[in-house]
Amino acid sequence: MAPSDAPSTRPDDLFPGRVSSLRDTDPELVERFEALATDEVRRASRLDPRTRLMVQLAALIACRGLGEYRGLVATALAAGVTPVEVREIVYHAVPYVGMGPVVDVLLLTNEVLTEHGVDLPLPGRSTTTPADRAAKGLAVQKEIVGGDVVDAMYANAPDDEAHVQRLLSANCFGDHYTRLGIDVPTRELLTFAMLVALGGCDPQVRGHVAANRNVGNGREVLVDVVTQLLPFIGYPRTLNGLRAVDDVAPAA
């Protein structure tokens, strides 16, 4: 698809209020990137704007694109993504990206939210306790991934690695997927976007293609998500993500 002579969305709509010296120092690069991100890629999407922005934020967290992330948080808030949803995207990244990189994202997020007049801390959204997180996590894990798959993961884990399966159920699913603020199908899209953006996670990407199908996110949605990540994560990770979709949910 050739770039349109009249982009469907102005660049300032992608990064509102953002002053970039790159437009002065690197105008050719910025012009081509903005045409790709705001016209060619976005024009092909059937995702609603809020979902598109949420998965892009998730991917930017995973690939540590803090500069672009800051600009896109402002865009997301203007488009109706709530402060709670922004926070939940960041929290959801912890089991996939790790607290090491995410702490910087969280500090930046709090800074942007404060600039937009949001009082912190935001209300809590946890639904589990230390006593029930493991049981509730295992239940939602089986709902998303499939009971037979989860049982096989437990059964096939060597004795000295079984604790990781228990941590996965209690922490990743019990502490995070059970939270309010973002529904499970959307959380699965966030997970998929993060894993694709991380790179080197091909088995996990394939697993979450299947999990997304289990919660109602089919091939069309997943291809759309990967396409919307392309300007921010590059072609190699985009193509690897599409390969995972083709492996698990081939075109009819």
Report what the structure shows.
By secondary structure, the protein is mainly alpha-helical. The chain folds into two domains: 45-121 and 183-248, AhpD-like (Up-down Bundle), CATH 1.20.1290; 126-178, no CATH class. Helices cover 71% and strands 0% of the residues. The chain has 14 helices and no strands. The chain has helices at residues 11-14, 22-25, 27-43, 49-62, 66-78, 83-97, 99-115, 133-145, 147-156, 162-177, 184-198, 202-214, 219-233, 235-248. Helix 4 (49-62) packs parallel to helix 6 (83-97) and helix 6 crosses helix 11 (184-198). The longest helix has 17 residues, at 27-43. The chain is globular, with a radius of gyration of 19 Å. It starts with 10 loop residues before the first helix and ends with a helix.
Radius of gyration: 19 Å
Number of distinct helices: 14
Instruction: Let me know the CATH homologous superfamily of the largest domain.
Output: AhpD-like
Q: How many structural domains are formed by the residues?
A: 2
Cα separation of the termini: 23 Å
Remind me, CATH topology of the largest domain? AhpD-like
Query: How many extended strands?
Result: 0
The CATH architecture classification of the largest domain is Up-down Bundle
Structural class label: mainly alpha
Question: Average pLDDT across residues?
Answer: 92
Beta-strand fraction estimate: under 5%
Taking the sheet with the most strands, its summary is: none
Shape: globular
- Give the uncertain stretches in residue-range form: 1-12
- Secondary-structure element order, N to C: HHHHHHHHHHHHHH
Helix content: over 70%
Per CATH, the class of the largest domain reads Mainly Alpha
InterPro entries: 4CMD/NDH-1_regulator (IPR052512), AhpD-like (IPR029032), CMD-like (IPR003779)
Protein name: Carboxymuconolactone decarboxylase family protein
Organism: Oerskovia douganii
GO molecular function, one term: peroxiredoxin activity
